[in-house]
Amino acid sequence: MRIDVVTLFPNMFKGFLKESIVKRAQTKRLVTIKLHNLRDYTLDKHRKVDDRPFGGGPGMVLMVEPIVRAIEAIEKTIKPARRSAGGGRAHKILFSPAGRVFSQARAKALAKRENLILLCGHYEGFDERIKELIEFEELSIGKYVLSGGEIPAAVVIDSVIRLVPNVLGNPNSAVEESFSKGDKLDFPNYTRPRVYKGIAVPEVLLSGNHDEINKWRSLRANR
Ligand code: SAH
After folding, report:
1. Which residues does 43 contact at the CB level (< 8 Å), separation at least 6?
2. Is 141 close to ligand 1, i.e. is its CB under 6 Å away?
3. Cα(99)–Cα(11) distance, rounded to whole angstroms?
4. Is the pTM of the predicted complex or chain greater than 0.85?
5. Which pLDDT tens digit goes with each residue over 36-70?
6. Does 142 sit in the ligand 1 pocket, CB within 6 Å?
7. Contact 10, 149 (CB under 8 A)
8. What distance in angstroms lies between residue 200's CA and the mean position of ligand 1's atoms?
9. Any idea which of 3-12, 82-91, 104-113, 167-176 has the lowest mean pLDDT?
10. Distance 109 CA to ligand 1 centre (A)
């Protein structure tokens, strides 16, 4: 899988991409992540990416032209054999508080794609015409407002990558967890010591009786 991210702040991703499971997925060559600075797709000498909104009001709006240039340039570097049903070569996602709220079900579907392009907004968001020019899935990560789409992109990258086959050491990790079957949640876990500050681990987990353990776990899963 290849994920291209278009952002004004590529450095926001640097630490995140170099740690833990996301790092391992790249080291194992299961996932390639490419960061693109939107400013590199401007034509003027000031590298201008935003402008004041028509009609007035606070803040700045991301201009349509650098975004179109960025997406077109990225798609040219994706192999034509991988052209997806949506017309373009990659499945394209734009982050917006107005989008559909992201879920584990969406993460599962996105993990099956060969190519994703993630577009991070900033300031007041995008010139609306971008949605007429390019087919995007519009995603929100929740009903609150962030300064930019970088954290939402990190959320999507993390949740999608861990579902790509062979990324997790144990394939069952992604099967037996919260939201993997509808809204069912993971069961509570305990590890050593057996007693801490007078709180003991539930007896059944120490019993070695796997039928009883499974029964207890499924009972406690939807706490
Ligand atoms: N003026 C806009 C908010 C813009 S926030 C409004 O009121 O709706 C700036 C950018 O941050 C957005 O373009 C989007 O890319 C990102 N963003 C902010 N909150 C988000 C959320 N909950 N989910 C996904 N993206 C978000």
Report:
1. 65, 69
2. yes
3. 25
4. yes
5. 999 999 999 999 999 999 999 999 999 999 999 99
6. yes
7. no
8. 45
9. 82-91
10. 23
Measure the CA angle with vertex 62, ends 56 and 63; round to 5°: 90
**How would you classify residue 163: left for phi > 0, otherwise alpha for psi between -120 and 50, otherwise beta?**
alpha
Q: What is the 3-state secondary structure (H, E, C) of 172-202?
A: HHHCCCCCCCCCCCCCCCCCCCCEECCEECC
Q: Which two structure tokens, joined as six digits, stand for 178? A: 């919260």
Tokens of 56: 């007035």
- How far is it, in rounded angstroms, from Cα 77 to Cα 89? 9
- Report CA(175)–ligand 1 centroid distance (Å): 31
- φ/ψ of residue 144, rounded to 5: -155, 165
C-alpha–C-alpha distance, residues 88 and 222, integer Å: 41
Ligand 1 close to Cβ of residue 150 (< 6 A) = no
